[in-house]
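Students often ask what a holo structure prediction actually looks like on paper. The answer is less mysterious than it sounds. You provide the chain, you provide the ligand, and the output is a string of discrete structure tokens encoding the 3D arrangement of the protein together with FE2/S2 (inorganic) cluster.
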Amino acid sequence: MGATERTIRFALNGRPVTATVDSHFDLVDLLQRFDLTGARESCGQGLCGCCTVLVDGLAVSGCLTLAQLVDGKSVTTIEGLDQAGVLTPTQQAFIDEGAIQCGFCTPGFVLMAEQLLAHTPDPSEEEIRDWLAGNLCRCAAYPEIIRAVKSAAARTRAHARA
Ligand code: FES
Ligand code: FES
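The corresponding structure tokens follow.
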């Protein structure tokens, strides 16, 4: 093991895992080792949101997060959001509202929306736009995405009341 390598242990989509990573290795690259490709590296500069994942429930850019920093933490990717195959209200709303075109940006938008709704269950359109400002969609599906997040908010509130 080289001087800059370190073995880390963390929860990945609820499962304890171990990895040995170099100090410059980023989180997106680490996830690919586990065959998780939902978080995509696009800009590589923290500008597009395509690499968004949740670390201890907070959305981070995987391209700017050093893999070693998730040691001891809980990492959730788009692949780990559903519950035994049942999509979350947010995932279902993105499908139902046609907010997915090529899909490249979708995991990042969904995870950011999940974090928004955990923080603000009934967001205004302005709050939705603010929270999603760091996520870019090259297909320009923004109207559908905003509609999907509004629908997801209503579904999540209804789900919580049931
Ligand atoms: S690839 Fe990480 S923000 Fe664009
Ligand atoms: S759906 Fe294609 S980049 Fe957003």
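Residues 100-106, 137-139, 141 surround FE2/S2 (inorganic) cluster (ligand 2) (CB under 6 Å).
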